[in-house]
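Subject: Sanity check before I submit

Could someone independently write out the structure tokens for this chain? I want to compare against mine line by line before I put it in a report. The sequence has 74 residues.
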Amino acid sequence: MQIKITKWFDALRKNDIKTASTYLNTSDKKISYSNKNERKIVEEILPKLKYKIISSTVSGDTAKISQSLQNTSK
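---
Independent answer below. Compare away.
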């Protein structure tokens, strides 16, 4: 499970929405932006995001992840 979460965060940091959406457990795997400003904000923030997975537990088809997120922009 941690590998999937790591790959999801890595894809988001690269603004690779198509790859990130493959890790979603939903019938609608399409991720899109509402407008140009939303896209601009995401492109500015996500590449600077640092994450650390603290723990994960899996029960059936549900996973709980504890993580630490930090934006490194100054």
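---
OP: Matches mine. For the report I'm noting this point. Residues 2-13 form the longest helix (12 residues).
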